[in-house]
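To the wet lab folks,

You asked to see what we're planning to order before we commit. Fair enough. Below is the target structure as tokens, and below that is the sequence we designed to fit it. If anything looks off to you, flag it before the synthesis order goes out.
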């Protein structure tokens, strides 16, 4: 078993002088990650168009999307283990190819076989899930520590930009192309994700040393466990996560915001837009403001280096509480839109430092497994929250549920900020490092 470094936190680097967007290796990784994110977002939208065109029923749509989610959750942990055991580039290649292979199967099954579409959607979700932790770890291998925050900000801006412009682009393409052709286009995006990224330079492996001499990379090559199998290796990733109390506290805060806050607003916003304001405009404007706010937050955090980055990040995460809070009372719709913009800014003020700190602090040979735990908890509990919020609103009423969710969004990140290491997202205060 490889020895975990006493602390993987380097000295706080000076702000980079060369833009990450001028790095060819990162640009290839960025293009692949962007293509995978766009393909992930596009699939439910295109399948929704199939419902509008009566090629797919509403019940079948729910089944297909549920199969995709199940495939994602089943594969994300496996992908984390494989990405730590084998080449991360190879894991990205084969998982993206698997997701790409699902696209023509979906096209063939459309209007003919819901069973085939369900199986293909599960394959697409599995490919998506397996490549997520591999992409996270590959970023740490490709980008030097001083520019990772800028790199993660560029990644999230690409995702948010796709979310903002994707619907209009897809609707435009739908005027000229049928749904089957659009599904094949999603397959092409996955091919880009599979083939464009290069191999990581293993920058972190080269820099980190383990106690007793030798590099973490060499230790990884010699000591990655094999006899214990998948379960043992995944549990080793959990043990690594437990070495970082700030990480566990951050997961708890994410659960509160995603499973309660995000789920509550996802259910309540359409109802309130319709019943209180009598228009769908509030729903569309609030969601657009959230995405625009997230883009703004990513732009800010690409350069901003707060002295207490963990506390600043948790404050940003807690800002999501303004979204359910704005829905509680009959305020002007502009207040709701502004609250969603603030929530969007805050979520990226958390996400970018969170990803960057995980890439910096976690032992390199366990990074993909710890990242898979992050995605597993974040994505896995979201459907649970969505399933429980609607019955809770029916039983207690929308205002009490929104009040409870807003309180959780504010209080749980505040409590998480008190965890050891939470102030700097590090086990050791950078100010004490010589």
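Sequence we intend to order:
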């Amino acid at each position: 078993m490889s020895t975990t470094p006493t602390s993987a936190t380097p000295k706080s680097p000076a702000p980079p002088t060369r833009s990450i967007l001028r790095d060819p290796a990162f640009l290839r990784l960025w293009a692949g990650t962007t293509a995978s994110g766009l393909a992930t977002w596009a699939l439910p939208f295109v399948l929704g168009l199939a419902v509008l065109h009566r090629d797919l029923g509403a019940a079948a749509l729910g089944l297909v999307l549920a199969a995709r989610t199940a495939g994602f959750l089943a594969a994300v942990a496996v992908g984390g283990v494989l990405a730590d055991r084998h080449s991360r580039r190879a894991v990205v290649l084969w998982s993206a190819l698997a997701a790409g292979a699902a696209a023509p199967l979906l096209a063939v099954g459309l209007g003919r076989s819901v069973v085939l579409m369900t199986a293909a959607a599960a394959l697409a979700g599995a490919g998506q899930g397996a490549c997520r932790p591999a992409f996270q770890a590959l970023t740490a291998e490709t980008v030097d520590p001083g520019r990772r925050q800028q790199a993660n900000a560029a990644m999230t801006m690409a995702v948010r930009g796709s979310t903002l412009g994707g619907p209009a682009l897809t609707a435009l393409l739908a005027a000229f192309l049928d749904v089957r052709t659009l599904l094949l286009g999603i397959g092409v995006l996955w091919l880009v994700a599979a083939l464009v990224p290069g191999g990581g330079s293993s920058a972190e492996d080269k820099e980190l040393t383990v106690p007793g001499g030798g590099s973490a990379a060499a230790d990884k090559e010699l000591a990655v466990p094999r006899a214990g199998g998948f379960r043992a290796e995944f549990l080793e990733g959990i043990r690594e996560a437990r070495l970082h109390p700030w990480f566990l506290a951050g997961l708890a805060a994410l659960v509160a915001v995603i499973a309660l806050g995000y789920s509550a607003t996802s259910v309540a916003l359409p109802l309130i837009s319709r019943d209180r304001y009598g228009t769908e405009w509030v729903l569309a404007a609030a969601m657009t403001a959230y995405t625009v706010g997230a883009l703004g937050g990513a732009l800010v955090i690409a350069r901003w280096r707060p002295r207490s980055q963990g506390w600043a990040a948790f404050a940003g995460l807690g800002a999501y509480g303004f979204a359910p809070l704005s829905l509680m009372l009959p305020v002007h719709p502009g207040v709701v839109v502004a609250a969603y913009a603030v929530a969007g800014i805050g979520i990226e003020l958390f996400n970018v430092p969170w990803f960057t700190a995980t890439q910096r602090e976690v032992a390199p040979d366990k990074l993909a497994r710890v990242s898979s735990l992050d995605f597993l908890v974040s994505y896995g509990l979201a459907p649970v929250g969505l399933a429980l919020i609607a019955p809770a609103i029916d039983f207690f009423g929308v205002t009490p549920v929104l009040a409870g969710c807003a309180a959780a969004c504010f209080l749980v990140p505040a409590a998480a900020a008190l965890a050891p290491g939470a102030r700097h997202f590090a086990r050791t205060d950078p100010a004490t490092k010589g």
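Structural context that might help your review: The chain is about 75% helix and 0% strand. Residues 1-16, 202-227 have pLDDT under 50 and may be disordered.

Thanks,
Computational group
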